[in-house]
Amino acid sequence: MNIALQVENLNKHFREPEDFHVLQDISFTVNKGEFVPIIGKSGCGKSTLLYLLSTLDTDYTGKISINGTPVTGKSQNELARFRNEHIGFVFQFHFLLPEFTALENVMLPAMKLGKCTREEIEENAMQKLKQLQMDNFAHKPSSKLSGGQQQRIAIARALINNPAIIMADEPTGNLDSVNTGLVFDIFKDLSHNKGITILTVTHDLDFANGADRVIEMADGRIK
Ligand SMILES: Nc1ncnc2c1ncn2[C@@H]1O[C@H](COP(=O)(O)OP(=O)(O)OP(=O)(O)O)[C@@H](O)[C@H]1O
User: Fold this and answer.
1) Distance CA 130, CA 217 (A)
2) Which is nearest to 222 in space by CA: 5, 2, 1, 9?
3) Whose C-alpha lies nearest to ligand 1, atom 1?
4) How far is the centre of ligand 1, averaged over its atoms, from the C-alpha of 220 (Å)?
5) Best mutation site among 22, 60, 201, 214 for ligand 1, i.e. most ligand atoms within 8 A of its Cβ?
6) What's the gap in Å between 123 CA and the centre of ligand 1?
7) Which of 41, 100, 114, 214 is the most buried (most CB within 10 A)?
8) What integer is the mean pLDDT of 5-9?
9) Separation between Cα atoms, residue 173 and residue 90, nearest integer Å
10) pLDDT tens, 102-140?
11) Mind listing the pLDDT tens digit for each residue in 177-216?
């Protein structure tokens, strides 16, 4: 099957401080290996949508399937395992553990999954760092790296469990234009050459313009 993400009639309300229909009848599909930015004005619901798609928020109506697996209705434990195995996360703030080395940070999600030995995980993590041209920094504490380097470590960490899909929320929000370009090139390579699906919320129009297609939102709907 070629579909990485299928979203059907998604609706979400925030109930406090008053009822607010934040996502309205959202339906779309994303194919495997597509690179799709989600754009739209501040407050239109982009991050809320990404949060639902990444299975972190289950308070909605409608259906979400990832890689052919319906995730709607799964228990919190099942979702935690599903996320670890299938989804890589990249955020605006990288959330690296500052006192850990780059390598240790990349290894963490695989250690949590507990499927491989420490040696296997270390080898895999080194490969991911190499892929992002960060292997020379493997043994440096992450706090000693630049913002762009830290974001590349965060992308390596998102890749460690070989996810089918990467969900990113403003991954270049804190970066200068050179590093934004680097992250763009990495995402393009991962999607086009490695078949990983990339869904990313962004305000960066250069980033959006270079992608396969964009999902544009306005007032809780897809335009
Ligand atoms: N927990 C919440 N309770 C009530 N309203 C919320 C909550 N979280 C977000 N909202 C509202 O929902 C709307 C959509 O928020 P969201 O963060 O998804 O927008 P966004 O498009 O990602 O915006 P930005 O580009 O500024 O990050 C906004 O009007 C916001 O104020």
Assistant:
1) 36
2) 9
3) 14
4) 10
5) 22
6) 40
7) 214
8) 98
9) 11
10) 999 999 999 988 889 999 999 999 999 998 899 999 999
11) 888 998 999 999 999 999 999 999 999 988 888 898 999 9
Question: CA torsion 190→194→197→203, rounded to 10°?
Answer: 10
Structure tokens at 47: 């991050």
- Note the pLDDT of residue 1: 63
- With a Cβ cut-off of 6 Å, ligand 1 is lined by 14, 16, 20, 22, 40, 42-48
- Domains in the chain, CATH or no CATH each: 3-222 (3.40.50.300)
- Distance (angstroms) between ligand 1 centre and the Cα of 189 equals 31
Q: What is the predicted ipTM? A: 0.97
User: Which numbered atom of ligand 1 lies nearest the CA of 217?
Assistant: 21
In degrees to the nearest 10, what's the CA dihedral of 101, 103, 104, 110? 160
CA of 45 to the centre of ligand 1 (A): 6
Q: With H, G, I as helix, E, B as strand and everything else as coil, classify residue 181.
A: helix
Average pLDDT over residues 44-54: 96
pLDDT of residue 55: 96
Query: Which segments of 59-176 does DSSP mark as H helices, in order?
Result: 76-86, 102-113, 118-131, 147-159
Residue with CA nearest ligand 1 atom 18:
45
- Tens-place pLDDT, residues 62-80: 999 999 999 999 999 999 9
Tokens linked to 208 = 């959006």
Tokens 């989600």 sit at which residue? 38
CA of 198 to the centre of ligand 1 (A): 22
